[in-house]
């Protein structure tokens, strides 16, 4: 077990000295981008007092949120190859610090811009169109960007012929919160709070949102500079949360009346599911070990007592770890053959081959393989396109590659990278 003494006020001092999510020299001094982002207008509907505040979105038709089944040991999972090759093409360029990706079924891709509190649509031909409307105006007014915080994750809740219901993770002057709205064409409707009161800070904000295979909304949070919060079940910080699309605690959650699914996390951003029902999440370490975890309901993942593997006991060990210089994993995607993690400091797309469910979590994965190392700089997000003809395909001729394709965002303009002409980029990565 690796002892950690970073608790309470002392932890804040140490983190500020380290100035980074994963170690020294990786964090710029906090800055507020503009006066309009200094406070949230009191009249804005997204500025309610912190705390869970489920509110239905008019005319929304989300998937039904049901109990998550256990991982199926008998599922037919073909082991992923030990190594693969990749082919990379550029979909879009000159993106301003993109953070989250949500492919749409019509081939467009929705992206969030962290610092600008903006949302853009990328057409199949690479054209980038800003999203406007009342929801976009509200985001510009309410989102506060400082260092790692701002407009972060995005996911699709439901699609109809004429509209898409989306959820967004945003930092405000008071908290981190999840908002939902309906996108019609390039117009975003009014924002409605789904879950508020997630602890905020300019670092360790978490920020992932994803619609799970159970139809529930999963939210990943950070400890917001308070490591003790990760062990406090009354705090939403340092947790993986599971709620209905309206914000109520989801059925089957391990703690009655609570949105908490798992705890003891330092800073989780990427989450995804394998076909056999396992939940995977990527976690930033402090200055020693980054983690890939298999997530179990009610389980404690150790922070701040343990960073990396602690030898079991009261805490669940990760299935893979990396030195923080080699990874800093943000986004995560799961395909039928592997888990992919987008690495920031490591400038690497890490691939962890899947194995059938075994006696231990670690039995269910192979040795990590490094892809794209140093070729495109910092990598923020990754999503899998899934079946042929699915979302995000760029043209008919390459639609057949979609079942092996990923979308990857670079993050070289986030204040820590070394941007080149054309950064940041949305890349299409086809696995061979």
TrEMBL record:
Keywords attached to this entry: Signal
Disordered: annotated segments: 26-65
Signal sequence range: 1-19
PANTHER family, sorted: HEDGEHOG-INTERACTING PROTEIN (PTHR19328), HIPL1 PROTEIN (PTHR19328:SF13)
Name used for this protein in its record: PQQ-dependent sugar dehydrogenase
Glucose/Sorbosone dehydrogenase domain mapped to chain residues: 96-383
Organism whose genome encodes this protein: Cellulomonas fulva
rRNA processing in keyword set: no
UniProt keyword ATP-binding, yes or no: no
Taxonomic lineage of the native organism: Bacteria, Bacillati, Actinomycetota, Actinomycetes, Micrococcales
One family name in Pfam for this protein: GSDH
Compositional bias of kind Low complexity: 38-50
């Amino acid at each position: 077990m690796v002892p950690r003494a970073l608790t309470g006020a002392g932890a804040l001092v140490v983190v500020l000295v380290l100035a980074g999510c994963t170690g020294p020299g990786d964090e710029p001094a906090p800055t507020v981008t503009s006066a309009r982002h200094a406070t949230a207008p009191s009249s804005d509907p997204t500025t309610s007092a912190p705390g869970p505040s489920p509110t239905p979105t008019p005319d929304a038709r989300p998937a039904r949120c049901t109990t998550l089944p256990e991982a199926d040991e008998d599922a037919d999972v073909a082991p992923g190859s030990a190594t693969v090759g990749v082919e990379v093409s550029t979909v879009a360029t000159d993106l301003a610090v993109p953070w989250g990706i949500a492919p749409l079924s019509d081939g467009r891709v929705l992206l969030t811009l962290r610092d600008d509190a903006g949302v853009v649509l990328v057409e199949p031909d690479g054209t980038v169109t800003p999203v406007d409307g009342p929801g976009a105006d509200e985001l510009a007014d309410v989102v506060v960007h400082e260092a790692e915080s701002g407009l972060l994750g995005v996911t699709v809740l439901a699609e109809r012929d004429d509209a898409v219901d989306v959820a967004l993770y945003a930092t405000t002057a008071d908290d981190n919160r999840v908002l939902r709205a309906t996108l019609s064409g390039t117009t975003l409707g009014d924002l409605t709070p789904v879950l508020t009161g997630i602890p905020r800070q300019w670092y360790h904000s978490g920020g992932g949102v994803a619609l799970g295979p159970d139809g529930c909304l999963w939210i990943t949070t950070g400890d917001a500079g308070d490591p003790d919060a990760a062990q406090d079940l009354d705090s939403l910080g340092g947790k993986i949360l599971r709620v209905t699309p309206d914000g109520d605690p989801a059925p089957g959650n391990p703690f009655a009346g609570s949105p908490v699914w798992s705890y003891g996390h330092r800073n989780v951003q990427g989450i995804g599911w394998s076909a056999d029902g396992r939940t995977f999440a990527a976690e930033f370490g402090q200055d020693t070990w980054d983690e890939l975890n298999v997530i179990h309901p009610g389980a404690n993942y150790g922070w701040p007592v343990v960073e990396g593997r602690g030898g079991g006991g009261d805490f669940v060990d990760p299935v893979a770890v990396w030195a923080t210089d080699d990874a800093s994993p943000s986004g995560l995607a799961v395909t039928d053959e592997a888990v992919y993690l987008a690495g920031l400091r490591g400038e690497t797309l890490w691939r962890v081959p899947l194995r059938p469910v075994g006696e231990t979590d670690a039995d269910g994965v192979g040795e990590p393989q490094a892809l794209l190392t140093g070729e495109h700089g910092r990598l923020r997000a990754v999503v899998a396109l899934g079946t042929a003809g699915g979302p995000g395909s760029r043209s008919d001729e390459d639609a057949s590659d979609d079942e092996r394709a990923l979308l990857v965002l670079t993050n070289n303009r986030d204040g820590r990278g070394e941007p080149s002409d054309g950064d940041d980029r949305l890349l299409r990565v086809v696995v061979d």
